[in-house]
Specification:
By secondary structure, the chain is mainly beta. The chain contains six helices and 35 strands. Bound molecules: fe (ii) ion. This is Carotenoid cleavage dioxygenase 4.
């Protein structure tokens, strides 16, 4: 079987609902309710492993005790290896859940209909992939790419029987390890507490946060079932129910898989390119409940800034880690008066910048029960605000808020202090119809804006810098928090698929389209978030755009995934290397590149 046919993938529909579990097999046929997914695994079998992970209380220590030295590829579980027979209680709970899915749930909305959500290359891969050699089909991998590009994304361990939102899937990491011009691909679940409990149980146990509220009868039934599961000891929510499916971050010589509903999970890459989950990190007991999936590390000081948000005051809590990875004290922000959906933020050398937007957590739990839908909803009567706080503030007394009508951002790209010291520039994609974010992603259009905030006068000026629908944007990581010129952004078309990448030059005039380079992936080909890798990292003389733009791209016609390396300085974003991946990589969320010298610290 060659590497193309080994990743073949079919999604069709059948009339009979059913569920089969992912299984390790050379040829699998599974159903998502009425959606059928067929996938052939590569010839290499997943390695045997222990599948057990434990909670850890951070700082830097090497996870050697979790590593099997006889075989560096045997430290991570394969889902198929540990599945016990379902016990009586689990069978009973699963039957009740099936009754809710089949007889109580109202007809599925497209946003939570698995047949819709998991169509095309959004469908999960059916098992993990151990490190597997890749074929370079164009050009050559440059020496400065020695390291690993790792991308996170949702990949449900169990094919959903009921409502399922794109954000509800278990986190899976897809790592392409590059060394001396050769590459291997490895795909592993993040072994979260949720993953391990459900893997051991042999069935889904924890409720889906984004799709679990589905009208009065179904919400009440699921609530009761969840309570019974906890009382019966199936799981303990104090250990977190997070998915770690959103992003990765490297700071304090540790690599983390992140999801904002839980604590970070420390992970590492072995020398053979395999992915190991080390454990859930509470940073010596100092980090409570959750942390953003978009922390920001200052490239000069090595400090990392982060926050958490929640449904009860303080709705925002700001904090940082020093360069040694020690978490500093919380700064609760009570001046945020309603629970905004705070997914991302920005830093400058002096400030942290938050956006309070119209998308927020629904305060009245009875609305969730009676109206159904996600726990996150839109408040059209609220005026969006930008909040600026000194990044070393001990409390919120110096925080300033600026009303910015119509400014609803999910992601921030970068920010910096202007030379006068009295103003800040923020670059971010503004979502024009925020109400569609969760229910109708196909209608979402985001305009990247350059926003100038005068901290003295309170005047905020805004200029869109491109008319395209752009998000999942990055800058050269060495320029986080300081004036940057270039942005690499994904083109959403048709949403939520990504048809290409653009390079923007924000130094162009405020009323000009700032696009300076573009690459479309071609008919039927869709990519993911781009990431910038410097050709000569750490060289202060290097030009900001001297490097490569990398991403995964999937060809839906050929059923083949590739890793692309593009020349960031080229006007065409010329492809300098294309790697055929041994298996499909589903569309996902955020990733990063970790250079070889940093991988060796893990
Ligand atoms: Fe994000």
């Amino acid at each position: 079987m060659d590497s193309v046919s080994s990743s073949s993938f079919i999604s069709t529909f059948s009339p009979k609902p059913s569920l089969l579990r992912h299984r390790s097999s050379s040829h699998l046929l599974l159903r998502i309710n009425s959606a059928v997914i067929e996938e052939r695994s590569p010839a290499t079998n997943p390695s045997e492993n222990n599948g057990r992970r434990r909670q850890t209380t951070l700082p830097p220590r090497k996870p050697k005790k979790l590593h099997n030295h006889r075989n560096p590829h045997t430290a991570i579980s394969s889902p198929a290896k540990l599945r016990p027979e379902m016990n009586l209680a689990t069978a009973l709970f699963t039957t009740v859940e099936n009754v809710i899915n089949t007889f109580i749930d109202p007809p599925s909305r497209p946003s939570v209909d698995p047949k819709h959500v998991l169509s095309d290359n959004f469908a999960p891969v059916l098992d993990e992939l151990p490190p597997t050699d890749c074929e370079i089909i164009h050009g050559a991998l440059p020496p400065s790419l020695d390291g690993a590009y790792i991308r996170n994304g949702p990949n449900p361990q169990f094919l959903p029987r009921g409502p399922y939102h794109l954000f509800d899937g278990d986190g899976m990491l897809h790592a392409i390890r590059i060394r001396r011009g050769k590459a291997t691909l490895c795909s592993r679940y993040v072994k979260t507490y949720k993953y391990n409990v459900e893997n051991k149980t042999g069935a889904p146990v924890m409720p889906n946060v984004f799709s679990g509220f589905n009208g009065v009868p179904a919400s009440m039934a699921r609530g009761a079932l969840t309570a019974v599961r906890v009382l019966a000891g199936q799981y303990n929510p104090i250990n977190g129910i997070g998915l770690a499916n959103t992003s990765l971050a490297f700071f304090c010589n540790r690599l983390f898989a992140l999801g904002e509903s839980d604590l970070p999970y420390a992970v590492r890459l072995t020398s053979g390119g395999d992915i190991e989950t080390i454990g859930r990190c509470d940073f010596d007991g100092k980090l409570a409940m959750s942390m953003t999936a978009h922390p920001k590390t200052d490239p000069e000081t090595g400090e990392t800034f982060a926050f958490r948000y929640g449904p009860v005051p303080p709705f925002l809590t700001f904090f940082r880690f020093d360069s040694a990875g020690r978490k500093q004290r919380d700064v609760p922000v009570f001046s945020m008066t309603s629970p905004s959906f705070l997914h991302d933020f920005a830093i400058t050398k002096r400030h942290a910048i938050f956006a309070e937007i119209q998308l927020g957590m629904r305060m009245n739990p009875m609305d969730l029960v009676f109206e159904g839908g996600s726990p996150v909803g839109t408040d059209n009567g609220k005026t969006p605000r930008i909040g600026v706080i000194p990044r070393y503030a001990g409390d919120e007394s110096e925080m300033k808020w600026f009303e910015v009508p119509g400014f609803n951002i999910i992601h921030a790209i970068n920010a910096w202090d202007e030379d006068d010291g009295d103003s800040i520039v923020l670059i971010a994609p503004n979502i024009m119809s925020i109400e569609h974010t969760l229910e109708r992603m196909d209608l979402v259009h985001a305009l990247v804006e350059k926003v100038k905030i005068d901290l003295v006068t309170g005047i905020v000026t805004r200029h869109p810098i491109s008319a395209r629908n752009l998000d999942f944007a990055v800058v050269n990581p060495d320029f986080v928090g300081r004036r940057s010129r270039y942005i690499y952004a994904a083109i959403g078309d048709p949403m939520p698929k990504i048809s290409g990448v653009v390079k923007l030059d924000v130094s162009k005039g405020d009323r000009d389209d700032c696009t300076v380079a573009r690459r479309m992936y071609g008919t039927g080909c869709y990519g993911g978030e781009p990431f910038f890798v410097a050709r000569d990292p750490g060289n202060p003389e290097a030009e900001e755009d001297d490097g490569y733009v990398v991403t995964y791209v999937h060809d839906e016609v050929a059923g083949e995934s590739r890793f692309l390396v593009m020349d960031a300085k080229s006007p065409e974003l010329e492809i300098v290397a294309a790697v055929r991946l041994p298996r499909r990589v589903p569309y996902g969320f955020h990733g990063l590149f970790v250079k070889e010298s940093d991988l060796s610290k893990l």
